[in-house]
Amino acid sequence: MALRLLLPLLLLTVTLFITQAQGIGNSGMDCCLKYSQKSIPSNWMTSYTLQGPESGCLLRAVVFTSKKNKKICASPTDPDVQKVMKNLDKRVRKDKKKGQPPRYRDRLKRQKQQQV
Would you list the domain boundaries of the chain? Predict the structure, then answer.
């Protein structure tokens, strides 16, 4: 009698452990599965990240994020992709040197002009 109650509980517990173990460290839903074939305009992109086996993905790729928060996958060996990456790096360095994003600086200038 106790075995009849214990067996389904044991099966449920084992099933839960197996499904959780398969999900650990697996970010497969966030991985690029193929590269985009379209050209990537650098002025539309805001940032990029690199993906590969170290991040749990099979495909090595550059994942660009657009101003509209869309993700675009590209080949890291493509010369055009490398140019876009360099442009983004330059833009980020330039904004860091100035200390504030361009839009914020423009808004501060307008506020000072209105106060005078």
Answer: 29-37+44-115
Select the CATH number that applies to the domain covering 29-37+44-115 from these four: 3.40.190.150, 1.10.1240.10, 2.40.400.10, 2.40.50.40: 2.40.50.40
Whole-number Cα distances in Å, 87 to 14, 37, 60, 69, 95:
51, 20, 20, 18, 12
Q: How do residues 46-104 score in pLDDT, each as one tens digit?
A: 999 999 999 999 999 999 999 999 999 999 999 999 999 999 999 888 877 776 555 55
Give the DSSP H or E segment for 72.
strand 71-74
Backbone angles phi, psi at 8, to 5 degrees: -65, -35
- CB atoms inside a 10 Å sphere around CB 57: 18
Phi, psi of 96 (to 5 degrees): -70, -40
pTM exceeds 0.85 for this model: no
